[in-house]
Amino acid sequence: MAAARRAKVSRVTKETSVTVEVNLDGSGKTRVKTGLSFIDHLVTSIGKHAMVDIALSGKSNDGIVHHLAEDVAIALAQTIDKALGERAGVRRFGYALVPMDEAAAYVTIDLVKRQYQNVQLKLARDNIEGMPREDLEHFCRSLVQNLNACTHMVVHYGDNDHHKVEAALKAFAVALRMAVEKDGRRKGIPSTKGAM
Q: Which helix (H) or strand (E) holds 53?
């Protein structure tokens, strides 16, 4: 029987307290409560479309939205990274092109343990669903920066900023689902180096 790909991370600072549990082999069940409605919605979408169970609670200790959005993204990414372990037997690469009404976004992920990120959300409004644009951009960057992977997240086009962000994170989820999936033909680490 294969080892469970589950992990738990707690990130507690003077600014925030965030606890995350994930099961990479779940069914997309989520329990998310941060006090930031749009972040809760986006994390729930990630779990649903990546088929990853996520239990996440976060609270602000200083009342600053930026700190909480950042730490939720960092803790979620670090928990996924931890659950992946040595990444043996995974497909490694994932990609998705996801539409949401008039917007379309694509994401490519390589689970190699060489962090690189390219995030282009192309947001126009200063505020989306009660959150500053720069905090949503920072949430997305913090998520992919802390995944310990190579990730490109690009909004191809769109008019509605809510749709652009949501398309980008749903594309991330679908690409992640593909990349973390167990490959029945794969033995060991999916790299010619023999290590990720």
A: strand 53-60
Q: What is the pLDDT of residues 10-60, one digit of tens each?
A: 999 999 999 999 999 999 999 999 999 999 999 999 999 999 999 999 999
Is residue 193 domain-resident?
no
C-alpha to C-alpha distance for 170 and 155, rounded to whole angstroms: 11
Maximum separation of any 2 CA atoms in the chain, in Å: 50
d(CA 90, CA 116): 19
The Cα–Cα gap between 59 and 72 comes to: 9
Name the residue range of residue 125's domain: 6-180
Could you tell me the CA-to-CA distances from 193 to 153, 163, 189, 190, 196 in Å, in that order? 26, 40, 9, 9, 7
Cβ neighbors of 64 (< 8 A, separation 6 or more) are 15
Q: What tokens does 186 get?
A: 């794969």
Work out how many domains the chain is built from and give that number. Answer: 1
- List the one residue out of 29, 5, 159, 177 whose CA is nearest residue 107: 177
CATH number of 124's domain: 3.30.230.40
pTM of the predicted protein model: 0.95
In a domain, 69, yes or no: yes
Distance, CA of 64 to CA of 61 (rounded, Å): 8
Q: Could you give the 3-state DSSP secondary structure of residue 60?
A: strand
